[in-house]
Each structure stands twice: as C-alpha cells, then as structure tokens.
C-alpha cells in the first residue's frame, strides 16, 4: 500500500494532529538581532518540510519583532497605530523569507496570505481559500498580523486557527515550555507539563498575549508551548508527543 497521503480526501496521516497552526516569534527569525538570520529560517523550514511530508496540514503565523515592535516604538514617542502597521510590514518580510526557503530548498508548495492587501507578493486573507490550500498540501503563511493595530500576532494565530479549523496552536518559543517564573532569572523555576488557560491568565504567566489565551479558552482551543530550537520538536508536537507544556481547558477539545 502506498505511504502517500491523499490531501484531496483529507486522510489522516499517522500523527496526533491533522491540521495545526504554528506560531513563530519574529525575534527568533532575527537570531537575536535586526533582520532575518538565514540559518534560523533554514532550520525552521527544514522542520516544517519534514512535517508536511507526513501529510499534516500546516498553517503559520509569524511575528515581526526582529524588525519592529509597535509597543516599544510607542514608548519612544511614535504613534501606536502607525508603529503597529510598521510591525505588520515586518511580519510580511518574514513570511516571504520562510516561503523562499520552503519552496527553493525543500520543494514545498506555499501560499502567503496577508491581512493587508499586497497583490503583487501575496494573496489576501480568505479563510476558505486558505483551507483549500491546506487540503492540497500547501503550507499557508499568514502575514500582516490581524490587519489592525493593538492586536498581537499571538492573537492573530489564535483567531486564524479557529477560523480555518486547526486542532491546536503550536507556540514555538526559545524556552522548553511554560514555567512558574522566568527560568533565565529564577534557577528554581519549575516547568508545567499541563496547565489550563485560566491558570495561565490568573497566574499572569508571561507566555503570550492574554487576549490570545482568552480567545483559545473561550473556544476550547489547546495551545502547546515548546522549544523551537530543539531539532525535530515541530514534528514531535504535531505527533502529539509529551513535549513542552500543553494548555487546555477541561472538557474542551481532545489532545493526544
């Protein structure tokens, strides 16, 4: 029997999740600096390509912190709305970099969809079209954030995941999971294996935007927080292996 997956019929491959939303932070794309670090993008694209070849459907939202962060620019006196729009443009640059590596280095078909119209370089965000791309085995990369100021790309990832029918938000970080405190500051900080959305919010754990966690909590969307820098972790997360921290709400969607 052929090991190939029929994307048209949507057959489930041998892994835990069929359709996932991968949230990538822009800071990681810059390797800690301003701009795009090709080595980091290569590492990320290689992991995504390996997952797509198993038959999983992968959507991606990328931040723009390696170029601009609206809240920080506001602190320096810039108008917040204008600063956020600049940040949205930064996310699109990251999307194009990931698209290039996925297609040129790994032969993976992709589509970039943006919340702000950019007809020459990307499609406009249309949920049903995004779903169709995923069913055809293409990676869909969402840029431009939510298209509105004051909304983080974490919240965009949650919203897009809900609208296109993802089963989980995979939140890739530079740490292993969610801790009781910042592990870089507190050596005694303990990592959670499992935690609820409400606990994250009530404890004020600085993992992602509170609006994103609230949206996922209200709609029973699980979030898996894991370390992107460990090779193969994206595939492990998609298979539902016990890595990082799983955030869920009792009685919500089943996790593996």
From TrEMBL:
ATP binds at residues 23-26, 65, 69, 179, 182. Pathway: Pyrimidine metabolism; CTP biosynthesis via de novo pathway; UDP from UMP (UMPK route): step 1/1. Its EC number is 2.7.4.22. Keywords: ATP-binding, Cytoplasm, Kinase, Nucleotide-binding, Pyrimidine biosynthesis, Transferase. UMP binds at residues 64, 84, 146-153. Its main location: cytoplasm. The keyword Nucleotide-binding applies. GO terms for cellular component: cytoplasm. GO terms for molecular function: ATP binding; UMP kinase activity. It is found in: Cytoplasm. It comes from the Bacteria. SUPFAM superfamilies: Carbamate kinase-like. It holds the Pfam family AA_kinase. It catalyses: UMP + ATP = UDP + ADP. Inhibited by UTP. GO terms for biological process: 'de novo' CTP biosynthetic process; UDP biosynthetic process. Gene3D superfamilies: Acetylglutamate kinase-like. Residues 19-227 form the Aspartate/glutamate/uridylate kinase domain. Homohexamer. Catalyzes the reversible phosphorylation of UMP to UDP. HAMAP family: PyrH_B. NCBIfam families: pyrH_bact. Belongs to the UMP kinase family. This is Uridylate kinase. It comes from Saccharothrix syringae (Nocardiopsis syringae). The gene is pyrH.
């Amino acid at each position: 029997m052929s090991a190939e997956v029929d994307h048209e019929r949507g057959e489930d491959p041998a892994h835990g999740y069929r359709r996932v939303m991968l949230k990538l932070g822009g800071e990681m794309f810059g390797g800690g600096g301003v701009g795009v670090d090709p080595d980091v993008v290569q590492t990320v694209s290689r992991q995504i390509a390996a997952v797509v070849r198993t038959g999983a459907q992968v959507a991606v939202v990328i931040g723009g912190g390696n170029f601009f962060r609206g809240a920080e620019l506001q602190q320096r006196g810039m108008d917040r709305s204008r600063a956020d729009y600049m940040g949205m443009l930064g996310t699109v640059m990251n999307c194009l970099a990931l698209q290039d590596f996925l297609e040129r280095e790994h032969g993976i078909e992709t589509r970039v969809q943006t919340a702000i119209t950019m007809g020459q370089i990307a499609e406009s965000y249309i949920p049903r079209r995004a779903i169709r791309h995923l069913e055809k085995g293409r990676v869909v990369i969402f840029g431009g954030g939510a298209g509105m100021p004051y909304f983080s790309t974490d919240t965009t990832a949650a919203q897009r995941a809900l609208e296109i029918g993802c089963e989980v938000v995979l939140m890739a970080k530079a740490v292993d999971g969610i801790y009781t405190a910042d592990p870089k500051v507190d050596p005694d900080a303990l990592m959670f294996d499992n935690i609820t959305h409400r606990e994250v919010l009530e404890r004020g754990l600085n993992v992602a935007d509170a609006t994103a966690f609230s949206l996922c909590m209200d709609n029973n969307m699980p979030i898996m927080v894991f370390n992107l820098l460990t090779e193969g972790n994206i595939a492990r997360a998609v298979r539902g292996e016990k890595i990082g921290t799983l955030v869920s709400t009792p009685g919500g969607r089943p996790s593996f």
